[in-house]
Amino acid sequence: MKARLLFAFLLAATPAFAVLPSEQLADPKLEARARAISSELRCVVCQNQTIDDSDAELAHDLRVLLRQRLKAGDTDRQAVAYIVNRYGDYVLLKPPFEAETLLLWLGPLLVLVAGGIGVMFYLRRRDAGAPAFTADEQARLDRLLKEDAA
Fold this sequence. Notes:
Strand content: under 5%
CATH superfamily of the largest domain: Cytochrome C biogenesis protein
CATH class of the largest domain: Mainly Alpha
Helix content: 55-70%
Radius of gyration: 30 Å
Number of domains: 2
Shape: elongated
Structural class: mainly alpha
CATH topology of the largest domain: Helicase, Ruva Protein, domain 3
Number of strands: 0
Number of helices: 6
Distance between the termini: 70 Å
């Protein structure tokens, strides 16, 4: 019983690929190329899944389209370029570093820098707002510290 339960958990933990047997190419080399290319293409419906991992209809269409382009004799670059021309750079899991994608690449760094600047201003304001001791308070503090040390 425990072995079956363990097997079920291990089976659930393995990645599920959405590529259907009917989509696979007969030529193993072409199929390997298709798998390699599709690992770089994003499902535009599921966003952070590759088209191989997604069960969405659009991902299915992209898998079929990619395989059609490869069977037609396209190189890997030509097949990717064809899909990018139809769906834009967003379909790439690693979009190119261009002026149009500058914010996408530098956005996380800008947010980190802005957060650091915000923390710096907060700490400065917090320290500047602390009231200084009056002469009487300072003398009393010194007395208490001396008594405590003795």
